[in-house]
Amino acid sequence: MPLDTSTYSLALLRVDGRRWNELRRLHAQIRTQDAADGSSYLEMGHTKVMCIVTGPSEQQQQRRGQTSQRDAAAINVNVVIAGFSSVDRKKSGRNDKRIQEIEVTIANALASNLHTHLFPHSSITISLHVLSQDGSLLAALLNATTLALIDAGIPMTDYIAACTAGSTSTYAAGDDSADPLLDLNNQEEQELPFLTVATLGDSDRIAVLVCESRVQVTRLEGMLVVGVDGCKQVKQFLDQVVREKGAEMVREGAVEKSDAMGMVLDE
Amino acid sequence: MPITVLQPQPAAKRQAAAMSVDSDSDSDSGGGAEVHGEDILTPGTVITSNSQWMRGHGTYVQPGETAITSSLAGTLTKTNKLLSVRPLRARYTPEIGDLVVGRIVEVQAKRWRVDVAASQLAILQISAINLPGGILRKRTETDELQIRSFFAEGDLVVAEVQQLHQDGAASLHTRSLKYGKLRNGVFVSVSGIGGGSGVVRAKRQVWTMDVANAGGKVDVLLGVNGYIWISKHIESDTNAEAVGINRMEESVSSKVYSSQNDPLELSTMREIARIRSVILALVENRLKVDEDMVTKGYSEAVELGRESPDDDLYLGGEKGQRLAAALTGH
Amino acid sequence: MPREAEPSLSERTFVTQALEEGLRVDGRKFDQFRSLELTFGDEYGVAEVKFGKTRVLAKVSAEVTVPYTDRPFDGVFTITSELSPMIAPSYEVNRPSMEEVLLSRLLEKTIRRSGALDTESLCLIAGQKCWSIRVDLHVLTHDGNLTDCACLAVVAALRHFRKPDSSIEGETLTIYTSAEREPVPLSWLHSPFCVTFSFFGEEGEQILVDTTWLEEQLRVSTCTYSINKHGELCQIAKFGGAALDAPLFIQCATGALNRSKELTDLVERKLADDAKRRDKGGFMAELTAENDR
């Protein structure tokens, strides 16, 4: 079923009524799980994921094949995709290479962002649960992980915020009028070339870039620009969630207020 | 005090942004309850680019730059010239002198490894405990051989953080009558420091309270690490206060390392369970756990219990909210 | 399981400092590839690729099987890779390391999912019989840049492969031996090649191609492009690592395209050479009356 591109070129509206540069509805919560050191719940449209962080803590016996580092915390990522998360109820095995690839991507992205050297001999375990899938899965997982790690109070350089970007033309069509698209849903991901991009904080620096579909190299730049811009919007949103939670905690008297801010220190 | 003249600094990059933040904090300085999201630091937020400040915990300086940047979500603490970020929530980080409750997870040749909810296991050396046998003595090989007779895996201990190692691991000691193996009660774990629902460092972490319904006396022990022990109060044969410091070791009987509970009356057990419910209700309603809150919460809970015919101990959900409301006065 | 020893701190600082000064330990320029060797075996569908000390062998085989029920018009195409203890004792048999998983995923995305091989052409009788093409990839030695090397080997082997000719008359399917009919090449649509860039330095300012194993252990980040000579990207993989400025990726994509064109030419040239070599004993020999006396 090809995407009805004719409709798009007429009204410049996508299948779900968004314009090319619009994100889907974002919703996030932190501290959803009492037992965990850090936890989060994130929705990007209909993609819904949960993240639970345990650690940094010292493990009694290292699991086989898991590297224990002496001078920094090890990061273990587990992704569980629920059988009911997509239309076809397919049970994905433990050794699904696609999931393993996602796990490695998240672990590597975090390894260079977290200040793991502060926690020698210990390990940080991140469990991700996918409850519902509707495109931008890797991006949602990365965003949820960032929130949960902030909740766990693990020091990091900056936020890792991710989103997807696509292009309205398939690789075969050489039309130059193709628009880049932001934050694709499942239907669009099936039809159009897209890439997942994750940036560090407010900068233009890209931590993760994964493209799995065939696309003209000339389209790359447009997709990247839109993707990076989307990441900044996502970062703003994540930041807002953390700040609101923090303000709420300060109001409740759980955390003391800041001693001084901003200009006072710059004087 | 010497006066230093600082070099003029180039204008801060984020001056415009800083200005608005500043005006917010000014309005807050009166102690008003209004808090904005801007008062919270998040990872990647530049705290200051002024070089007169030193960076503390929760901050970092990007190589090649001078700006102190936050690496955590939390609030700012200023100690003289040291800037650090207090996290909204984090695992317990040991500090010297902390009273902690821990669980033995590993027994080694001359020491135990204790889980104290920190990022690393703490160490309890055999030389850092009071050995039984009455007199102050050196530890012998026999003691090392029967190390499990003092503490075995799974035992709960109350101890004090004696020193911190380079890598952040803590060493504990139990060289006081106040410390040692825990018996006659229940264990509760709440999340560590911060997070609004944890044990706060207070003047008194341990106290004995008289409980209602002829329950006798109950000891409550709030470990700074968020591990809590509630137990029946046992009167020691000789008053610990009266024993001189030199004779303190002598009163260490072999009973200290016993794993057998003393006889407990049902009424005491009920009240211990009630205190436990109170603590969990405090956590659930994001209130801090300290002596004041627990004792007040307990008397409220006793009142609440009288309402139901069979003196219900359960304090979850709506009941817990009522308790919290009574405590905060809302 | 013996763990691979990591480079010591002094080794690390030496290599990274040298790179900051613009020097690679093996004396190459940053954008210079190692000498590349591509040889075909006596059989059809065997290719061996050497990138410096990295050596990879790919072997293609074909058999007739039943197609998957959900895809009755498609043939079966699989790529299996094996990293055995032959490379280093730290690789275990039957226990795929993370590196191997990533490698096979990358090859799958580059070659299978990009539609380099026309799987519909492998169908013999819809829903009943089809060809199953299988590529076995063996890594013989590993001295860095395994993905590029493996991808080249697989593409070259598939291009070189000839499957037995077949015909269908009514309901009967006949597969001819190579003596009866000359085997036919696979229906090949485009040739994607992997080009991996490795980044060094705080900001990833030093970009290296065709890294050795030592360099790979020290890099801060890496990015693999799969691209064909027409400039069609098949996949991009930057799995975490240090964050890099966005324009770098555009710059690297251009580099990858140029390299891909070079590799395409190389494979074409080698295939032509091989065909000429084979022809000597075939058609040409029949024409000449000379005997090997």
TrEMBL record, chain A:
PANTHER family: EXOSOME COMPLEX COMPONENT (PTHR11953), EXOSOME COMPLEX COMPONENT RRP41 (PTHR11953:SF0). Component of the RNA exosome complex. Specifically part of the catalytically inactive RNA exosome core complex (Exo-9) which may associate with the catalytic subunits RRP6 and DIS3 in cytoplasmic- and nuclear-specific RNA exosome complex forms. Exo-9 is formed by a hexameric base ring of RNase PH domain-containing subunits and a cap ring consisting of CSL4, RRP4 and RRP40. This is Ribosomal RNA-processing protein 41. The keyword Ribonucleoprotein does not apply. GO terms for molecular function: RNA binding. GO terms for cellular component: cytoplasmic exosome (RNase complex); nuclear exosome (RNase complex); nucleolus. It comes from Cylindrodendrum hubeiense. SUPFAM superfamilies: Ribonuclease PH domain 2-like, Ribosomal protein S5 domain 2-like. It is found in: Cytoplasm; Nucleus, Nucleolus. Keywords: Cytoplasm, Exosome. Residues 22-155, 159-227 form the Exoribonuclease phosphorolytic domain. Pfam families: RNase_PH (PF01138), RNase_PH_C (PF03725). Belongs to the RNase PH family. GO terms for biological process: nuclear mRNA surveillance; poly(A)-dependent snoRNA 3'-end processing; rRNA catabolic process; U4 snRNA 3'-end processing.
TrEMBL record, chain B:
Gene3D superfamilies: 2.40.50.100, Nucleic acid-binding proteins. Transmembrane segments: none annotated. It holds the Pfam family ECR1_N. GO terms for molecular function: RNA binding. Residues 1-39 are annotated as: Disordered. Residues 7-18 have a biased composition (Low complexity). Keywords: Exosome, Nucleus, RNA-binding, rRNA processing. The keyword Zinc does not apply. Residues 41-78 form the Exosome complex component N-terminal domain. Its main location: nucleus. PANTHER family: EXOSOME COMPLEX COMPONENT RRP4, PNAS-3 RELATED. Belongs to the RRP4 family. This is Exosome complex component N-terminal domain-containing protein. It comes from Cylindrodendrum hubeiense. The lineage of its organism: Eukaryota, Fungi, Dikarya, Ascomycota, Pezizomycotina.
TrEMBL record, chain C:
One of its GO terms (biological process) is TRAMP-dependent tRNA surveillance pathway. Its main location: cytoplasm. Coiled coil: none annotated. This is Exosome complex component RRP45. Belongs to the RNase PH family. It is found in: Cytoplasm; Nucleus, Nucleolus. It comes from the Eukaryota. CDD domains: RNase_PH_RRP45. InterPro entries: ExoRNase_PH_dom1 (IPR001247), ExoRNase_PH_dom2 (IPR015847), ExoRNase_PH_dom2_sf (IPR036345), Exosome_comp_Rrp42_subfam (IPR050590), PNPase/RNase_PH_dom_sf (IPR027408), Ribosomal_Su5_D2-typ_SF (IPR020568), Rrp45 (IPR033100). Keywords: Cytoplasm, Exosome, Nucleus, RNA-binding, rRNA processing. Gene3D superfamilies: GHMP Kinase, N-terminal domain. GO terms for molecular function: mRNA 3'-UTR AU-rich region binding. Residues 32-164, 191-253 form the Exoribonuclease phosphorolytic domain. One of its GO terms (cellular component) is nucleolus.
